Amino acid sequence: MENTIRKIESLGAGSETLARLIPLLQEEVFPKGHILIREGKVERSLFFLEKGVARAYLTNEDRDVTFWFGVEGDVLLSLKSYFSNEPGYESIELLEKSVVYKIPYSSLIELYQRDVRMANWGRRFAESELIKADERFINQQFKPAADRYEEFVRDFPDLIRRIQLGHIASYLGVSQVTLSRIRAGKR
Amino acid sequence: MENTIRKIESLGAGSETLARLIPLLQEEVFPKGHILIREGKVERSLFFLEKGVARAYLTNEDRDVTFWFGVEGDVLLSLKSYFSNEPGYESIELLEKSVVYKIPYSSLIELYQRDVRMANWGRRFAESELIKADERFINQQFKPAADRYEEFVRDFPDLIRRIQLGHIASYLGVSQVTLSRIRAGKR
DNA sequence: CTGTTTTTTTAACAAATGTAAAATTTATTG
DNA sequence: CAATAAATTTTACATTTGTTAAAAAAACAG
User: Fold this and answer.
1) Is residue B178 part of a domain?
2) Domain range spanning residue B12?
3) Where are the beta strands (DSSP E) in chain B?
4) B86 and B5 in one domain?
5) Residue of A nearest to B56 (CA)
6) Cβ contacts (< 8 Å) between A137 and chain B: which residues?
7) Chain B residue with minimal CA distance to A83?
8) Same domain, residue pair B108 and B183
């Protein structure tokens, strides 16, 4: 569970905080294509992605739009569902056979209420996700799709091979045809 | 300071938490056009917007892109700067004469370390901002500019009159000409 | 290895959007 | 209230992007 532990520690957990969290983790293994979180349902568990790749997406009448990819060490959850106990709007699909560690919200909130270090760990977790969400948003609005594609390739070179281009195109906010044109341009 | 207090209470602060926070608030008044937070600088204060309107934006070589509007009761801060003590990438401008209440990060973090209720208040603050950021992001990617404009008008009817269309257009991710066409279509 | 299915690229055309500049409307100031 | 400045809309044209469908390439199964 090294990826998961590294993630927990990166949020400022000391050995005590870590020791409290680890017993809560329940390992689960899912096949490629498994829908971990389904839109419209309440899902009060959070998952550390130990091994595999995931995408978060919304479905429309006809098509679905991917808006996030998760890799080893990332946390998978339905924000609204997990934090506010309301039905979530997004689904999360595992794009490869994956190993996750699950924590039910109830266990976590109990620790948060009792232990100030845990509460601050949870605060830093939310803050770090917030900064990432903000950066993604700004990036999206500020840079053309071609630049974002280039950065995507630079930052996650292996994902290009692990994820279908259709998903990447919808993540970048362009049609797959446009993404093909972008790729053709870089040669 | 009713807007600020309402905001603090909406994040689950009881009377004790409120009583600890209020003494930290320093009122400041700024004229229209004041740049509250400047990109590239570290700003370790957070501001509750008691009165006024604000926009967060990034500057490019030639133009600037607005990516957020704040109204009474919203919190103004440079995320990266405030939470990570690094230079922020965004600027925040006050679009009207405004009243804000300022809290230095150092005061807040001290409370967070000592008091589990405060830490959980801070956690909920970050979580609620995270949910909003996520919704904005999804909205942006999922819906065409015309729909987003309609929602903007519906949700903030008064802002249309308080904010220049150029800022709104860049917020929606389209040129001002396109926004004019959208507006013309709705008649 | 071969046939089949899936994914990606290309082509052709229509629709939408951006740019630059002019025209109009609205706001501001003396 | 007139004069000026600022903001918004409109016009004209070029460019980009989306759509649908076909072609090519890659992945997969027997």
Assistant:
1) yes
2) 1-120
3) 26-30, 35-37, 45-51, 54-59, 64-70, 75-76, 91-94, 98-104
4) yes
5) A138
6) 67, 133, 136-137, 140
7) B127
8) no
